[in-house]
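$ run holo --ligand "phosphoenolpyruvate" --emit tokens
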Amino acid sequence: MNSSKRKPVLAANWKMYKTVAETRDFLKVFLPLVNNLSEREVVIAPPFTALSAAGEIIKESELVSLAAQNMYFEQKGGFTGEISPIMLKEFGVKWVILGHSERRHIFGEENSLIALKVKTALENDLLPILCIGEKLEEREAGLTNEILEKQLSAGFSEVGNQEAGKVAVAYEPVWAIGTGKTATPDQAQDAHIHIRSWLTGHFDSGIAGQIRILYGGSVKPENVNELMALPDVDGALVGGASLKPGSFAQIASCRVG
Ligand code: PEP
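-- output --
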């Protein structure tokens, strides 16, 4: 059970799935299923091309908000293929996922780039979901905490005390993403405690205590309640199991509080 100070966040990362038509179809089924939920935030991160349609549909919802899956750290300029925070805000985007392991490991994003993105997101009133997590070989070599600390200190390097509370951290062990392998409750709780203690060491305790720490990695309807019951898990970032409205509605309806 998370601290009552922190409202749980259940976030869907659709990656490179769903056209505009598929996004509309999903939301038409999904929104009525979650209509009556409260005491949580539900976030949907569709591909860039579907942000406009999704934003139009969810703009009346108090529960559901919109996220982008990535962003560049400049407002405009000669950056072919990139998207700026100003462009995201036009669609009503509230959150932006930064440093996802697929960005880090497929597209070679370094901690230094992610740090600039976090800074720019906050400067533009977007709430970063900063993803961190170790690879399997790093876990097996006993380096998990060291990797998490490195990613946290880079990700927060440009963030002041007052702004830090707006960031959500997503702990996503790389070996658990899209693999069907979920961290055990002990592994998830250990990592979340470590992240919380790093945050407490770097920001005022009131601020550090506001930062939501989400777990991500093969979260599904069958395991979400067990994960959400852990004291330091404040939400979930969900890939595969967020693609079907019934499945993500079950996850969004998890026990909280
Ligand atoms: C993710 O993409 O952030 C993720 C956690 O994916 P999955 O739920 O499919 O493991």
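-- notes --
The chain has twelve helices and eight strands.
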